[in-house]
Amino acid sequence: MAERRTRKPNGRSSIYLGADGLWHGWVTVGVKQDGSLDRRHVKRKTEKSATQAVQKLEKDRDAGKSRKAGRSPTVQDWMTVYLDTIAVQKVAPRTYDDYWSKTRNWIIPLLGQHRLDRLEAEHLDAMYGSMFRAKLAPSHVLKVHRILSRALKIAVRRGKVSRNVAELIDPPTADRVEQQHLSRGESRKVLAACAGRRNGARWSVGLACGLRQGEVLGLRWQYVDLETGDVRIWWQAQRNTWRHGCTDAHACGSAFHKKPCKRKCDLHKSTCPRPCPPGCVSHARHCPDRHGGGVVFRKPKGTGRRTITLPGPLIALLRQQRIRQETERQAAGSTWQDWDLVFAQPNGRPIDHRKDWQEWGQLLRTAKVRYVRPHDARHTAGTLLAEQGVHVRTIQAILGHSDVRTTEGYTHVSSQMTRDAAELMGSALWSE
DNA sequence: ATTAGGCCAGCCGGTCTGCT
DNA sequence: AGCAGACCGGCTGGCCTAAT
């Protein structure tokens, strides 16, 4: 006759007093990767606390919040997994690099060693405090928060942790900044200074049409109709970082890994670059099989492709540009690389954005106009159009915003417009 | 050997979209 | 309308290489 069974039915939790004098609890929360049962064990001094611990495990299990089997990863571990296996599939290369940059500089140094399941909202608050003390802009702190929050959200979804602590706190707030733009007079001065400069039309186009930097630098002749003045803004040039194409990225970069500088370093002017971490896999630009980097053409952000029409004087400028470029091409001979770019280096290759930025500064100095950022040329276009009374929807189409609210932010009501309005009001109310 | 310019990459922080 | 997420612009240091 079989002995009477005393054990609980399958799947039920058990609590018993062990031979060691402690109360043991076992809770089956699911099945492990290998198919075996995933049973969680707790050990307590009293029956009561063991029961409580078991109830907690059951509650988490029933709510679908049980941690996956195995030791919980640290924040550093998880960020690495999240970025390298999840984010890398989903986001654009530059975004991926950007996420890594913030993770490497802030999240890992300040939170990296925390176990993911033991991370508390207070730890995040402390990190943001450190960042603010380091004088980082609120927008930057906010972004780090969002990257972390996103990574934790995925961690919750994958059962690595039971809750997203980033959602428990108020994210840092970032104010909108005041946009700068040139006045009509200043714009005219800049346009005048463009005349005769090599690639001077680049800035005329930027100012008059409000193109983004990448859109101008990526503009190709095949998308420009010099007869009608129609320009198809279908692509923007962007510089991607290179990726290793070899099998051993660390060895590949061996000649370039940076060691810490001596205390008295006379090689670097201001700050010495930080040394490479052990096992560094950077320096992909030197990889003989490098890929994915350099100048690439991408769809513009915003509404994507759009077509604008150039003002008459600008068509003439671009015709001149074409002729000059032909001369340069002849001069370059076999060194000419044909990218079909409207604005290029003397050898036909794309203009580096750094060079472009320097040009803008020089141009403003030549024109004796106060410094504004290159991107402010875009704001200027929006504002000038608004001043001419162009409808905001039209400006939106020209600038390529998918949301008119963005355009409204660009095209501030200028002092000229308020003056005009005042004049109209004055004549409406007081003139004969 | 030195210099100038092109090129690359890192980082901060602003911009823009899509979702709700 | 506000927010999370994605993406990009701006700026800079420094390396590399060709020209001087």
Automatic annotation (TrEMBL):
Q: What Gene3D superfamilies does the annotation carry?
A: 1.10.150.130, Intergrase catalytic core (1.10.443.10)
Q: What is this protein called?
A: Tyrosine recombinase XerC
Keyword DNA-binding among UniProt keywords = yes
Q: Which UniProt keywords apply?
A: DNA recombination, DNA-binding
Q: Which GO terms describe its molecular function?
A: DNA binding
Give me the stretches of Basic and acidic residues compositional bias: 56-65
What segment(s) does the record annotate as region Disordered?
A: 38-72
- Which organism is this entry from? Actinoalloteichus hoggarensis
The answer, when asked if DNA-binding is one of the entry's keywords, is: yes
Pfam families, per database record: Phage_integrase (PF00589)
Tyr recombinase domain mapped to chain residues: 177-423
Tell me which Gene Ontology terms the entry assigns under biological process: DNA integration; DNA recombination
